[in-house]
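User: Teach me something about this protein's shape.
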Amino acid sequence: MNNSFLNRITILENVCHGKPTIRGLRYPVENILELLASGMTIDELMKDYPDLEREDFLACLEYAARLTNVKNIFKAAL
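Assistant: First, the predicted structure itself:
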C-alpha cells in the first residue's frame, strides 16, 4: 500500500508560473509551507482554506521532505 500524498502536488506551466501547487489549484506549496513554518496548525489552515484537505497539507510536508533528501546541502546566502 502506497501512503504517499505526492500525487496531490502538481506542476503545471499555466498555473502559478509552473510552481508546485496543490491539486492544480492556485495554492503554491511554498506558501503553505511558510504558513506551517510560522506555527499555524493544519487544523487552522483547514479553516482558512476550506477547499483544501488534510492530505493536501501532508502532501506539502512530504514534498519538502523529499526535496531535502539529497547527498549534499550547501549553505546558501539568505
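Now, about its shape. The chain has one domain: 6-67. The mean pLDDT is 91. If you'd like, I can walk through any region in more detail.
User: That's plenty for now, thanks!
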